[in-house]
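Session log. Operator J.P. requested a structure for one protein chain; no other inputs attached. Running the standard single-chain path with token output.
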Amino acid sequence: MATLRIVFATLVILLGVYYATLSVLALTMFHSMSTAAFPAVFVASFVLLLPIGVIAVCCGVGLLALRPWSRRLWLATSAFLVIFHLCWLAHDLRSDSQIVPLVPAITILLFCTASWFFLKSYAAPRLFS
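Structure written below.
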């Protein structure tokens, strides 16, 4: 269980770094090109990614340290991410029918769903108490 916890927490940290990096790159692009060239939903989604990235990194560090708050916070964050990426997928599928650009969102959906079930399992609350 310890190895699985370490791998899981590392993946949460990497997901947080991914979100933060994606947000910083998008915000840099918006600054250089102006946000008027992009739909408001697109701009808002990338602005949301920076706080979500910071929260995910904090959750990952807390999961490594076996903190109970990190388990509860990641449960809430992963539920939000599932809803966020389902909306993103619905928007992308309406605008473009290609599946390749959707692979990261589908992978994140699967990871968040699996992590939610992992943290709701019988052994997880005892591990983080």
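Operator note: The chain has a mean pLDDT of 84.
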